[in-house]
Amino acid sequence: MRFDIISVFPEFFRVLDLSLIGKAQERGILSIGCHDLRDWTDDPHRTVDDTPAGGGAGMVMRPDVWGKAIDAVMEPDGGENVVVGPTVLAIPTPSGYPLTQRTCERIAREAEHVIVACGRYEGIDARVAEHYGAKGVRVIEYSLGDYVLNGGEVAAVALVEAVGRLLPGMVGNPESLVEESHGAAGLLEYPVYTRPVSWRDAHIPEVLLSGDHGAAARWRKDRALEKTATRRPDMIPVIDAEGLDKKDRATLSRLGYLTPRGAEHPVKVHARVAEHKDLCGLTDLAARTFPDAAPAYLRRESVESFIGKNLSLESFRGYLADEHCQVCVLDAGQEGLIGYTLAIVPEADGVAGLDEGAPVDALIDGAERRGPLTELSKFYIDRDWRGTGGAQMLWDYAIAELAQACDQWDNPGVFLGTNAANRRARHAYRKLGFEEVGERRFMVGEQDNHDIVFARGLRMP
């Protein structure tokens, strides 16, 4: 690959003779030419700029001078640096697109000649980029970040470094390009350590010294996910979901990102208390999810009757207006609501659902209940989001809200009922710390429904 850098300060680029870039030039992996823009001027003062058309502060670099310079390095006269492959014209500018690793990878893969036009002052006349783009040259106007430098020279060095290190033979261990920040994994790099093992009372994590390479790899992946979610949350929703294993998804769910069935990327999700604006979404979600939990023997008309009576728009309007009802939702942004809970909180240290089989005398975590017994009446997750960690996320939020509402009591409890035939739900509730404490029966439409009743403490870990 050939780099030609045009600048009014060509001596700035002596730094590229150092380190890996310098060695790569010696080995013939790449070549770099640095050119003084003023060599293409034709006036005694070697002028490269003029006042901006339409007025304004500063000076603008002239297109006629830049055109001569770019033409000269783009079509050399048969010397040793002739390049016949695809050419990229790269123009550093604060108004450009952010320079990303993906852009650098594409340049390294597809280009053979990169011309970097280092502007100064107010920048290069816009017609330069337009002209070469119209001629079929790939023009990249790029920025290093949301700040302004005095000129494009620093950004030119950054581009040469970022693209050059991706060329075959440049980096000794190609695997390092996969795990590094912004590499093929699409994550920021995990923390790295070396000897001494203990330094100023700080120690290398034990897992990295254990000799268990699988555990070390897992630790590194988890730290990379955590760092990316914290420092660059914009990178998580573009991760390729196919490259995530079960443990990756579990870590992401703990960080607030779920990957539903069929999704290409993780989705940012958060739990919150339901609001009036959620009424339609809640009603639709309830109508979708209740039939999945209903036992197979229930007729469709019975299920529809229950939904119409208990899960209608008017029902949820009443729940949201009732101070003794707590409705929480799992919000997936543009994906909509994907889960909800409905809890009934009694007054003082009373019992919710007394007429619906509440386990009044049940022990709570092996001790006598001291405080209210709340009923978790509804706890549903949309079908495609089950098994993603969403249920745990919603549960953690809902139970924390309930615990806060009952924080003046020593041992408040919560109970719920699930159909006796629903083994999946019973297993899930046991994992959440619930214990079976009884049974109850009630009507769904005109059919009898048999529930297993579970209970646990609100403050149980």
Task: Describe this structure as you would to a colleague.
With 461 residues, this protein is of the alpha/beta class. It folds into three domains: 2-172, SPOUT methyltransferase, trefoil knot domain (Alpha/beta knot), CATH 3.40.1280.10; 198-266, Trp Operon Repressor, Chain A; 270-457, Gcn5-related N-acetyltransferase (GNAT) (Aminopeptidase, 3-Layer(aba) Sandwich). It contains 13 helices and 18 strands. The protein has helices spanning 19-26, 63-74, 101-110, 127-134, 153-164, 176-179, 213-231, 246-254, 279-293, 300-310, 313-321, 390-405, 423-431, and strands at residues 2-7, 31-36, 49-50, 60-61, 87-98, 113-117, 138-143, 198-199, 202-203, 257-258, 267-268, 270-273, 325-331, 337-344, 373-381, 413-419, 435-444, 447-457. The protein has a seven-stranded mixed sheet, sandwiched between helices. A five-stranded parallel sheet has the order 2-1-6-5-7, sandwiched between helices. β1 (2-7), α1 and β2 (31-36) form a beta-alpha-beta unit. α3 packs across α5 (153-164). The longest helix has 19 residues, at 213-231.
